[in-house]
């Protein structure tokens, strides 16, 4: 008796070719307190773009930065924030007028999108101690 053995080619699932995500160059944010303009209007949402090498080099030639190195972040943030609310002309004077908590937020946001590549932060619930991630870009609860 002769036995015939049949080999079946293992069925392979087609390999998924992951398309790289398009490069994001602009990131929306929501300030904790908000920028108060000359008329008293509070502006909380805004857009920050990725920094270029020039954005980090040009402020070093600024006389205000040479006199006070702490001013570097004001000039740098004013170069990469493209809009706060309806204010589209962002300059160091606008950044100077932010509340300290908003400036600290923008400095951290800058670091996250330029060094880490994302806007998420790990946090711990003070009540239950559960750890989870939040998006610093300011999305509302229930939004994806």
Structure, described:
The structure is a single chain. The chain has helices spanning 53-57, 63-67, 72-80, 92-96, 100-116, and strands at residues 26-36, 42-49, 81-84, 120-124, 131-135. Residues 139-144 have low confidence and may be disordered. Helix 3 (72-80) packs across helix 5. The chain is globular, with a radius of gyration of 24 Å. Helices cover 28% and strands 23% of the residues. The strands form two sheets. The protein has a three-stranded antiparallel sheet with strand order 1-2-3. Strands 4-5 form a two-stranded antiparallel ribbon. It starts with 25 loop residues before the first strand and ends in a 9-residue tail after the last strand. A hairpin with a 5-residue loop joins strand 1 and strand 2 (42-49). The chain has 144 residues and is α+β, with helices and mostly antiparallel strands.
